[in-house]
């Protein structure tokens, strides 16, 4: 095994990337990783911790110590309010534009350059699609997400093991990665298997639910509808809410719970960014190249083999068209870097297929039409794109719900904000609270096994309905309950979504078409959303004064066809599966179960794209686990040969 002897690679030890760029001009590393999110950040850190030299290419910079990324209570703002954190894509939920534009969040560009979203665009408006943000910063989407933390069901991993005929993806074999990942701060100190990892998990202060009578009453009504349990008093409600949804006992049980959130003791976001910085600070040979947009993978011929040997990238800030600061005139500096072992692409479910296609790996016709030289005709790259379509139910109460802990905050991150001061100095208060305080698990008639197949989460007093321009600063909605719901048992081979190139320009965004709810499998997803809406309506029907009578906001009063409304108004942000693993080779799968890109050597994909079906309600947990497994597989392969393929 080749140890970390490349000169200069051990010198790197920077507290923050922007302030201290890597003090080396080295241009050769064992591994190059593109993208520092849940997948890329993890595999890069773990390979470095195993002694390998790693060069991590990230389009964005590091803002991990800034409150805009650290404050859990403002996570909704992290992707959309501050520049340099994320990229905005405009996607189509359906290729059928009549259906796609039934989304009230569908965005148009107006002739004066501004945007409009809604159902009545003025004449001449150019249709863009529905807003779909992705993190573009050190740590990727884990630095802008809502911190919700959910271990997948064993059945989900076993499904992949069955699909790939590879037991190493089964729940039993994957458990060691969960142990290596999780550091559960609310678990007992002697629960050692859950207190070892590098991502901290924590829970909201339950008094923010139980201390609000109208909200506590809703959760009590929910306990009765979902579990047939009559809540006796606040202590009883507290006890039920604090059952650990991540434990074996409760993760398979319908009921009311608290969401778990990826944040640490002082209630700062815990994500892939901290793991990267900790890895560098501990002296492992990881070098970050921030503000670097990978444009393509470079290949060599080795006999009959085509071997990935490096990456070409543009150095510069905001070079991608998804960036709100994008300026086509700023073209950056073209650079290359060489990998002596492997290149790992981890740009996320939209960018990974784009990078592969720009590198010549993709459907022949699509590449040739754009003048891209075909390295491998790989028909499924970008295909089978999936998501969790999240249905929405919003209800208005007759009175403000009251007791909102955010009421006294001034969420502008200014020095006058009492909530910011409290969070900063004591690690407590409303800013230390994660996104969705109200959680239910529910099993619909469509569940393919014994698992509750649906997650329902929501808010009392915050109006959440998906992504649209301005959604990062939701207006106060003191009377509104808003709930999102999704089915975890997503599509597999039935998925027909795709990421396709718009142009051969690596700075351009691709087309993203989800084509939700296809065929019989899609029909089940829709049925699950409709049944879950019915559950929520049964809970709201129990409301008494002063909140009653309740009025329907979404689906609106009088909407008869709930199913159509779910098709129109659902939103998503868990894209995956666009370079899915499986057996059968290049005709049917983008990568094999070792995550190696079919048709070439020395190239892997380690991010949400790799799954043949999205795992869990909240995908970050399993993507981190995938990154840990990938580091083991890649390092084991390295010990066999001077090059690992
Ligand atoms: C607003 C929002 C809320 C979410 N909420 C939750 C939640 O509560 N819980 C949960 O589990 N999941 C949530 N998710 C989803 C979760 O964060 C993602 O599924 C996960 O981070 C994906 O991991 P990844 O490694 O595939 O990609 P990402 O984490 O997206 O990382 C990809 C990285 O690659 C970089 N990159 C892309 N292309 C290039 C290129 N060409 N050159 C250089 N760098 C490149 C990007 O800048 C980015 O940093 C949310 C996502 C969003 C956007
Ligand atoms: C790296 O290269 C830059 C310019 O290319 C130069 O200014 C710098 O001194 C070099 N650093 C080292 C450590 O060689
Ligand atoms: C497109 O969507 C509309 C609205 O849902 C539907 O009425 C129409 O049948 C669809 N067209 C096709 C070709 O499926
Ligand atoms: C396992 O895979 C086979 C073949 O794809 C499929 O027929 C079977 O239903 C799967 N079993 C489970 C439990 O998913
Ligand atoms: C942890 O300690 C508690 C009580 O102190 C005990 O009941 C429990 O069994 C212990 N758990 C483990 C995993 O040792
Ligand atoms: C939870 O919030 C209450 C106020 O609602 C406060 O008294 C208590 O100290 C908080 N607990 C923790 C652990 O932060
Ligand atoms: C609900 O619980 C009550 C008693 O607590 C019981 O009588 C009833 O049968 C239960 N209903 C269902 C559907 O389980
Ligand atoms: C919590 O996270 C912050 C910000 O990343 C970090 O500075 C701090 O050291 C962490 N605290 C602990 C106890 O890990
Ligand atoms: C948090 O407190 C530290 C130490 O007092 C201070 O330097 C920093 O500016 C504060 N940050 C915010 C966002 O208030
Ligand atoms: C819900 O209530 C708010 C007042 O809090 C009001 O502004 C809004 O119009 C109501 N929405 C509906 C659909 O009734
Ligand atoms: C290493 O090589 C041996 C013998 O060729 C092979 O059986 C094994 O699968 C290889 N291991 C990896 C991780 O590639």
UniProtKB/TrEMBL annotation:
Cofactor: FAD
Organism superkingdom: Eukaryota
PROSITE patterns for this protein: GMC_OXRED_2 (PS00624)
Residues noted as binding FAD in the record, renumbered to the chain: 619-620
Entry keyword Chloroplast: no
Record's keyword annotation contains Signal: yes
Keyword list, A-Z: FAD, Flavoprotein, Signal
Signal peptide interval: 1-19
A single GO molecular function term of this UniProt record: flavin adenine dinucleotide binding
Pfam families from the UniProt entry: GMC_oxred_C, GMC_oxred_N, NAD_binding_8
Domain Glucose-methanol-choline oxidoreductase N-terminal span(s) in chain numbering: 348-362
Family: Belongs to the GMC oxidoreductase family.
PANTHER family: DEHYDROGENASE, PUTATIVE-RELATED (PTHR11552:SF213), GLUCOSE-METHANOL-CHOLINE GMC OXIDOREDUCTASE (PTHR11552)
Name of the protein in question: GMC oxidoreductase
Species name: Periconia macrospinosa
Classification of source organism: Eukaryota, Fungi, Dikarya, Ascomycota, Pezizomycotina
